[in-house]
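Re: weekly structure request thread

Next one in the queue (175 aa):
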Amino acid sequence: MFIQHKQLKYLNVTAEKVTHLHSASSSVQLAFAEYPPQLCRAYLLQISGGNKVLIVVAFYLTENQCSICFVPEFGEVSSADAEETYEEGYSFVESMGFVLTETDYHLSSVKKKQSYWTALPICQPPKKQEPDTPVSTEIPVQESDAPVSAEIPVQEIEKLRSRSLKSLGRFFASM
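Done, posted below.
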């Protein structure tokens, strides 16, 4: 089981310590506690140090430009148990609707690993420090006694239609 590591805001490790890396082939809309629903990217990686291995699941929130990291509840594992824990992480990420693809990171040269690793958004410090304020679900009440107009401008209807179609497209793409 993976749990959120609240102190881990981005991955500040060297490229050489990352021994395996999967990334999501597309973004999925998710809602994490304290953040509004938004498109996210997912990464599954194995960080090795000595004979211990840490499996990390990292989600990059595109709107808030920050990362949320999950680690196994028991922390680091031995090299012998790493494959099983990595598979658990793989299942965890895919259960959220992501399709992970192999990056062949472990087959790249040292120079390519460094440039690829440093370019990943999960390796960058968060750009926004605080999550957005929660979205209000209250409907504004009109104070006057004037009747509410039932007519909606055609332009507004077209905007809503376009937005609904895009949302529906993302929904079907995630299936």
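The longest helix spans residues 154-174. The helical segments are 82-94, 110-119, 154-174.
Next request, please.
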